[in-house]
Amino acid sequence: MTDKTAKTLTSSGFYVSQEAPISSDNPVATPASTPPDILRCAYMELVVTDLAASREFYVDVLGLYVTTEDDEAIYLRSTEEFIHHNLVLRKGPVAAVAAFSYRVRSAEDLDRAVAFYTELGCDVRRNPDGFVLGIGDSVRVVDPLGFPYEFFFETTHVERLSWRYDLHTPGELVRLDHFNQVTPDVPRAVRHYQDLGFRVTEDIQDESGTVYAAWMRRKPTVHDTAATGGDGPRMHHVAFATHEKHNILAICDKLGALRRSDAIERGPGRHGVSNAFYLYLRDPDGHRVEIYTQDYYTGDPDNPVITWDVHDNQRRDWWGNPVVPSWYTDASLVLDLDGNPQPVIARTDSSEMAVTIGADGFSYTRPDEGEKSMPEWKQGEYKLGHQL
């Protein structure tokens, strides 16, 4: 819960404050050990059930570049990347996430990761040769929230393709931008990731202080990961950035031309949270991929934290378009370090979908007028029954 006296209402309709004072009733203990110094989100390892179908989606449709591949796995990277890969597609029996992987500042940070998570009693494993091709000495853990995290420093360098304009497509994906994790207790997640050095940039709350989601960063953008309230641990989405919003429109046009518009789950649109232009797609296994561009710089030490009202219908889409129910309910399983799906724990706090597009229909455009601030023909649009 954020102390509202420490927040300032802006002309854009949201509040700003300094580092979000979100508190947890069930915090993860803070280790005495120094945490690893995380630079950025680096890659995700996805398990897919049909490798050929996934290759077609990520390479032929979205245009990611193949670094290497075999019958069991495909290693892909975006245009600006110089490390071996940003995405691993590994063939397996159950579609899930095997690792959220972060690059750290030095080899010594791997020792820090081992000490940090060992002190927390987590499953911690280290492989000097790496768990995947192109990545050296690595540490994988199941963190206290149930997510499979990886930390690495050593990596094979590959050619950065920014200058290969002969290869670029109209919808060029230039870099991995962020992850989004679904967890039942957002304040607990925020508190733990703050112990890892993440800083909150934006969050969504209600009048009683319930936290529905929070965005956290290590690199100086809006986020490297986000905690979305829901049944978890699960993966909500992995996001790749484009240079401009017209690149996102080109992807939509391409999907339409290929008669694959059913892969578009939501968008294109402009987020209120992050201010970014977005598009959400579903891959052949249902894994959600966001295409994302034009958020903002957050690197100053006094960067203000933005807090959105959960009933503000412009928080998720700046133009006020409703969110499809699947975006709130569907997410990918995550695996433990032995490859088994993690059990999913139900969220007990209020559901963002229920309080904004459920039967109550409390969303508004202007808070002083409530739902009546929307024209009569639009009232009720955010209720679940009216969307189906």
Topology:
Elements lengths: L7 E2 L5 E3 L20 E11 L2 H11 L3 E5 L3 E5 L9 E5 L4 E9 L3 H12 L3 E5 L10 E5 L5 E5 L22 E9 L2 H10 L3 E7 L5 E7 L7 E5 L4 E8 L3 H13 L6 E7 L6 E6 L5 E6 L11 E5 L15 H5 L2 E3 L17 H6 L26 H4 L1
Parallel strand pairs: 3-6, 7-10, 7-20, 11-14, 12-19, 15-18
Antiparallel strand pairs: 1-2, 2-19, 3-7, 4-5, 5-6, 8-9, 9-10, 11-15, 12-13, 13-14, 15-20, 16-17, 17-18
Provide structural commentary:
- The chain has 388 residues and is α+β, with helices and mostly antiparallel strands.
- Helix content is 16%, strand content 30%.
- It has a 20-stranded mixed β-sheet that branches.
- A hairpin with a 3-residue loop joins strand 4 and strand 5.
- The protein is globular.
In short:
The protein is α+β, with helices and mostly antiparallel strands and 388 residues long. It contains seven helices and 20 strands.
Structural class category: alpha+beta
Round the mean pLDDT to the nearest integer and report it.
Answer: 93
Q: Describe the sheet with the most strands.
A: 20 strands, mixed
Q: Classify the helix fraction into a percent range.
A: 10-25%
The parts where pLDDT drops under 50 for at least 5 residues are none
Q: Helix segment count?
A: 7
Helix and strand element order: EEEHEEEEHEEEEHEEEEHEEEEHEHH
Percent of sequence in beta strands:
25-35%
